[in-house]
Amino acid sequence: MTSAVADAWAGKVLLIYTAFAGPSSSAGVAIEEAHTEDHFGRSFLVGRVPQSQRDWAAGLQVAIAMDQVAHRLVFDSRQQYESAIAQAPLAWDARPSN
């Protein structure tokens, strides 16, 4: 990734939705400190899951293959991201019960 592209994502939180995502990842994957890296001949979006009490993976490094990205949301700051998720139901809360 060029420095200009990495700079465009500096301080932002990306919410990534992947192609063919199963129910466990239908809410997307949040990434901050996003940049790309090449591994095994493929380009990956790499970063950290933002700190949150609502995500067991908070603070962990995450890598998503760029060819699996279906779409993304860009939040200008962690505060904007936190405000949005505070207003949204958890993915597992939104599923119909049997």
Describe the structure in brief.
The chain is about 20% helix and about 35% strand. The chain is an alpha+beta fold and about 100 residues long.
Task: Outline the structure in words.
The mean pLDDT is 81. The chain has one domain (3-94): SH3 type barrels, CATH 2.30.30. β2 (29-39) and β3 (42-48) form a beta hairpin. It is α+β, with helices and mostly antiparallel strands. It is built from 3 helices and 5 strands, in the order αβββββαα. It has a 5-stranded antiparallel β-sheet.
Distance between the termini: 45 Å
Q: Count the domains.
A: 1
- CATH architecture grouping: Roll
- CATH fold title: SH3 type barrels
Assigned CATH class: Mainly Beta
> How many E strands?
5
Biggest sheet layout: 5 strands, antiparallel
List the total number of helices.
Answer: 3
**Unreliable stretches:** none
Which secondary structure elements does this structure contain, and how are they paired or packed?
Elements: H1 3-8, E1 13-18, E2 29-39, E3 42-48, E4 61-65, E5 69-75, H2 78-87, H3 91-94
Antiparallel strand pairs: 1-2, 1-5, 2-3, 3-4
